[in-house]
Amino acid sequence: MGEMGKRKLDTGWFAARSTEVKLTGVELTTTHPPSSPDQPWMEAVVPGTVLATLVKNNLVPDPFYGLENESIIDIADSGREYYTFWFFTTFHCKLSGNQHVDLNFRAINYSAEVYLNGHKEVLPKGMFRRHSLDVTDIVHPDGENLLAVLVYPPDHPGRIPPEGGQGGDHEYPIKHCHRDRNTGIWDEVSISVTGFVRNLLFLISMHYSSVQPMKIVDPHLVSSFFDNYKRVYLHATTGLVNKSARVAECSLNVQVTTEVKGGFCLVEHLRTEHVSVPPGASVQYTLPELFFYKPHLWWPNGMGKQSLYNVEIGVEVKGFGESDMWNHHFGFRKIESEIDSVTGGRLFKVNGQPVFIRGGNWILSDGLLRLSKKRYQTDIKFHSDMNFNMIRCWGGGLAERPEFYHYCDIYGLLVWQEFWITGDCDGRGIPISNPDGPLDHELFLLCARDTVKLLRNHPSLALWVGGNEQVPPEDINTALKDELKLHPYFQISTQSGNSQEDIFPLLDDPSQYLDGTRIYIQGSMWDGFADGKGDFSDGPYEIQYPESFFKDDFYKYGFNPEVGSVGMPVAATIRATMPPEGLQIPLFKKLSNGYVEEVPNPMWEYHKYIAYSKPGLVHDQILLYGTPTDLDDFCLKAQLVNYVQYRALLEGWTSRMWSKYTGVLIWKNQNPWTGLRGQFYDHLHDQTAGFYGCRSAAEPIHVQLNLATYFVEVVNTTSDELSNVAIEVSVWDLEGKCPYYKVFENLSVPSKRTVPIFEMDYPKSKNQTPVYFLLLKLYNISDYGILSRNFYWFYLPGGDYKLLEPYRKKKVPLKITSQVFIRGSAYEIRMHVRNTSKKPDSENLLYKNRFIERDSDGDFDVASLEAVNSRIEEKKEGGLIRRIFSRFQHEANALRVAEVNGTEVGVAFFLHFSVHASKPDHKEGEDTRILPVHYSDNYFSLAPGEEMPINLSFEVPPGVTPRVTLHGWNYHTGHTIL
Length: 978
Hints:
Number of helices: 17
Helix content: 10-25%
Number of strands: 48
Low-confidence stretches: 197-210, 856-889
Distance between the termini: 52 Å
Strand order of the largest sheet: 26-25-24-23-22-30-27
């Protein structure tokens, strides 16, 4: 008997170019199936593109490496047949009694013929649509099944113009990566079995061969709130499909559970409804609302917990038993959005609380669409680690997958989901191939509706947007506005007095709408974004002076959907992704106007390197630290600039929270390939220092220096007032002395405000040093617990950082105490790093401060636990797994102590850890990094006598022993810590 439920078909696939296969689909799935990856067959990547499969089998070079992509033929030159491929696999599925099986494709680009055991089905066209085939009568009685899929590229792949259509760095997804136009089975393939035999005598009496099980299709969950979020109703409408020739008498069961202490689940609701479904009918059934009193709410990152309930809907057919089951993690939350009257920017509220948006733009997880749950989880946790609260899924990428949204739900990232309208993606780029946008408007709308149904139950989904820097064609835009219009309940503010009984008898149930709970905006620069009118008023996209972000004239609109800058990765990534000729650093060309132009080598230019200078406007920010001598020196100095640049960007925006701005999204968070600009972590998952600059600046509670006014400010984005707090200010010179120290006590900061506290007057004092360090700490007076810590480095006006060059020789001693916790392949390392150089004699409070442990719920890598308890992970992913880990009994190593010797007093500057595989047969130049690694902090500095906790978590490959290495500005040779 087959097991009811869904099973992915993600292993054991072969592929072959269609022109090299001389057999028909019927023959492949009956008499002549391929049994091994022998010519012309090869191991296939599913999910993935045809190009991903060719790369895996070394039939084309890695397009992400150097200039290798140039040698891969483009479909415009090869013709569509070159990238038309067969995909083949086998699977086991043996049915019993009245069981029923569907073969599901969650997305194929662009069309396909499906052959199963000699039977043919033709899938309709469309990259963003799901397909479900009833194969109950096709699967073999013995359970062994042969599946072949012939995948065709888009009908009109087009020719990419030399300029790439989309300018700047985002021409890559169009021009460089997608030589096959993303042809392939690029998303999940699965089989789903419904129906279960319970009453055999009843089946015999009813001639069970004529009875088909019921199927649940696309349930829609909506929550409504009353009495200041104390009373909540859960609305649900679901599709029910009865393909039999008889009326199906069904019991529709709804169960809502939540977690309680100890990892157990509490049943909040259990209800059964009796439904009759006519023969051959597909019906939409709306269940009576379920009432909750004071449920745990879902909040964005930094505003509260991401509470999730498990909603399970099951259907039983009278006399037959359980037929189908569906479940989903659902978060009770209400998202409201309006144009702010003060700033003109779009304002978002979650559960009635305004959210100051700090986030960035997302392109793709991987340019070859090798989509994986594990990679998604790392990507989204990185965004949470940066304290971001929104991701914009840019319109030139994908309608993101449910797994992406699942982790956004877990980590609290609101999502701006854009439809695929932008430049050459819809034919309106350069040259124009179709002024009316997509060739098939009805197909576009069909795919859009299906995407909405796929994603609408995720609490992280905040809004729909029609297109990037343009709007859809008029008919599409009108249809989207109509079909995604808000339900009347969501057009009004949360009711404080009206009851559910007063409102909903007058309205359709909100779960009956296609969505109805979140806004639709026609384009990324309309209606509260950029200038709100569609003019090109996003950006800029280049290096800036750090103080510029704080000035009145930097950006004049309330919400910037794209502002970009640099993003050079570390030297190890350049070596891993470039041949020797690509390791040359840029030439610094002095211009007649006194500015410097950076001239990168051809490979860096191809990979969209963006300079750290803007001749005529911004002097080179790397040269402030001295002329780089080699790749390592260049990349290290680039990390210094990355940190300063992105911290200043977010601090500048946050400084004007609600008075000038409602939010900002950085262009961009990450790269789908080995790009060299606009990223906080590279394609190999190693973070840049900009990652930690953002992490600092976007803290929910944060102390910062306004670089334009030189006032120290406290930012409080939480819903609670800060009281009885103090700010400690200390300045450190290059000799390790503290010439300036002040404490400001008994401070209070209102909720959701940025408040200037006092002017930092050290630069105006006598005998100030040309280069100095500034340490700001915000702490609770009651227990000296640090709420925020912020470390700056400065030069005096007209100067530079070149005095830091000899400072690299200063040997400042460190002591690192660590303990390692191991569970299978998962490692967690807890360290305390202390600068052991002599403390100043003054009675500074600095050494009374202690770091408050951040809420660690979810800080460890959830994916590392999947092997520990995969069944629980499937049933109740996310919060339960994280709480299980908090009670997990680790295998712990003894406490270890490592010391870095030194006799000089000073700041231990720009410390950063990395994790490597210990390999006795290590080859010179080999990349030994273990990635990804989640750090509680990195690229940090310590004043004399200061101590910081640093936690690391990562997974290691089988048989590998990890090694942790410390580097820093004055620790450039590297020190093995453990």
